[in-house]
Amino acid sequence: MNNTFQIGDRVQLLDEPLEGKVIAIDDTSITFLSSDGFELEVASADLIRLPDNAAREHLSGTVNPSLKEGDSPKRKNPTQSRKKKGQDPPVVVDLHAEKLFPQKNFPDAYELLDRQIEEARRMLEFALRKRIQHLVFIHGVGTGVLKSELETLLRRYPEISFNQADYRTFGQGALEVFIPQSAFS
């Protein structure tokens, strides 16, 4: 597929299921309006052009007979299509100091970090025992020390996967953890 873009093209990010319509093009980047209404500026190498509706129907070999000419097919809400039937919401573990020490008697930085990692380890082990498949650790933005230590802890469990949590739901300081059924013994 040719990836020379024009204003009005439908595009999708390569690494995420985020799509939209091109609204501006310059020498180094392309700006598109996402289906959520956000303007995003990215390098053209990070985008692919999506086929228009007619090309998509031709490629898939299916046409909805109930659609009249000029109508576009109704799409499911992307957040609904990602959720499986009966999937529980994630267990959210907030590792901020004020959540772990509500009396505001914070220990020094080293003791605080140790307590935060111990809490994360405790909750991860709890999830493994109780067959909880989806956790979110909120670590906050800060200097990145807690995030780095949390990633080190999570790498010790080769059966689980983790990535940055959805920033629209949890902000930028959160890691999402997935535990497959095969990890439960």
Keywords:
185 residues; alpha+beta; SH3 type barrels; Ribosomal Protein S8, Chain: A, domain 1; 5-stranded antiparallel sheet; 9 strands
List the helices and strands and how they pair.
Blueprint: E1 10-13, E2 19-25, E3 30-34, E4 39-42, E5 47-49, H1 53-60, H2 78-82, E6 91-94, H3 97-100, H4 109-130, E7 134-138, H5 145-155, E8 161-164, H6 167-170, E9 174-178
Parallel strand pairs: 6-7
Antiparallel strand pairs: 1-2, 1-5, 2-3, 3-4, 7-9, 8-9
Helix pairs in contact: 4-5
Please provide a written account of the structure.
The protein has 185 residues and is α+β, with helices and mostly antiparallel strands. A hairpin with a 5-residue loop joins strand 1 and strand 2. Helix content is 29%, strand content 22%. It folds into two domains: 69 residues, SH3 type barrels (Roll), CATH 2.30.30; 93 residues, Ribosomal Protein S8, Chain: A, domain 1. A five-stranded antiparallel beta sheet has the order 4-3-2-1-5, with no helix packed on it. It has a four-stranded mixed beta sheet with strand order 6-7-9-8, covered by helices on one side. The chain starts with 9 loop residues before the first strand and ends in a 7-residue tail after the last strand. The chain is elongated and about 55 Å long. The protein is built from six helices and nine strands; from the N terminus they run βββββααβααβαβαβ.
